[in-house]
Inverse folding.
């Protein structure tokens, strides 16, 4: 099945057609940018697609609400599905291909093979959403296998997912360069998410507190706090100030390993991550910061021999 939006977007739903289209572009010497999504595209996705279009000859956006990555009590059935608008946005941002396979095309039978990136998935989102990252890793591995050599664009918004995808690409030798893109936020700090559409007006009004909490954590690091638990507690305390929030986790981790360091060392990079329920909506966010270098020794009295130095 193939149809066109604005004369530029090729919409594909079969794996064979998707792979063949990308193979044909590569045969003409064109580089491929891949942007995997669940759809309900917003400005965060748009930033990924635009970046891919700036760096690659041909951009393929995939829209697939992957049942494998949703838990039994999660929002699979109510997840927003807005394919026509997604196609328009993708085309607008420079995509040439939109691949939106039906579930039956991706999983024609029981899934007997699954990809698990152990080590990076036992904590944080992995602890709160058992099986989630196996579902993500499995579908991303399938998309990488279908797409072939490409650059694949992922958002820092889903920081643990980014780490998982990087690792799976390396460990399974996919010819894919994973490119990380910064989180796009609303003017009030709320990270853009398809799930923001679930929020009531009252919930939306307090939602930016999640970002504010991360900034509190970063302030604690900047002020010299070296205990990751204390930094996480500063984030948690800010979230707790709003009773509509129910905190899931707050953590300060090493961005490469996602492990909590024993202590924060000068110059070290730290990632602050938070997840909380706001009504029936679960929101996540994260922020990078760097532990300040030790402050220089107090300046000595001016030494005339050093004048002008
Ligand atoms: P999703 O459709 O939520 O699975 O997201 C698809 C891709 O878009 C993932 O790589 C996300 O990390 C990325 N993404 C989602 N929201 C944002 C955002 N606010 N800023 C940047 N990237 C995002």
């Amino acid at each position: 099945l193939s149809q066109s939006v604005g004369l530029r977007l090729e919409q594909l739903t079969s794996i064979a057609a998707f792979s063949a289209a990308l193979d044909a572009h590569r045969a003409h010497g064109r580089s491929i940018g891949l942007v995997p999504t669940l759809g309900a595209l917003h400005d965060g996705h748009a930033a990924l697609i635009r970046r891919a279009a700036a760096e690659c000859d041909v951009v393929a956006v995939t829209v697939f609400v992957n049942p494998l990555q949703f838990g039994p009590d999660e929002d699979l059935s109510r997840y927003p599905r807005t394919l026509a608008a997604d196609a328009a946005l993708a085309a607008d941002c420079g995509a040439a291909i939109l691949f939106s396979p039906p579930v039956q095309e991706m999983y024609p039978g029981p899934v007997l093979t699954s990809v698990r990136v152990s080590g990076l998935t036992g904590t944080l989102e992995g602890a709160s959403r058992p099986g989630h990252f196996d579902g993500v890793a499995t579908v991303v591995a399938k998309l990488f296998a279908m797409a072939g050599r490409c650059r694949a664009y992922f958002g820092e918004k889903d920081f643990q997912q980014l780490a998982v995808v990087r690792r799976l690409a390396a460990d399974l030798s996919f010819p894919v360069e994973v490119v990380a893109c910064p989180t796009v936020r609303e003017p009030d700090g709320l990270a853009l998410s398809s799930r923001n559409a679930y929020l009531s007006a009252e919930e939306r009004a307090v939602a930016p507190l999640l970002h504010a909490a991360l900034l509190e954590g970063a302030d604690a690091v900047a002020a010299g706090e070296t205990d990751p638990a204390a930094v996480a507690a500063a984030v948690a305390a800010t979230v707790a100030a709003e009773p509509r929030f129910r905190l899931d986790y707050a953590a300060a981790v090493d961005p490469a390993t996602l492990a909590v360091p024993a202590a924060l060392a000068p110059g070290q990079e730290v990632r602050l991550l938070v997840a909380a329920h706001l009504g029936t909506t679960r929101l996540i966010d994260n922020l990078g910061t760097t532990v300040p270098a030790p402050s220089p020794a107090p300046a000595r009295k001016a030494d005339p021999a050093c004048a002008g130095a």
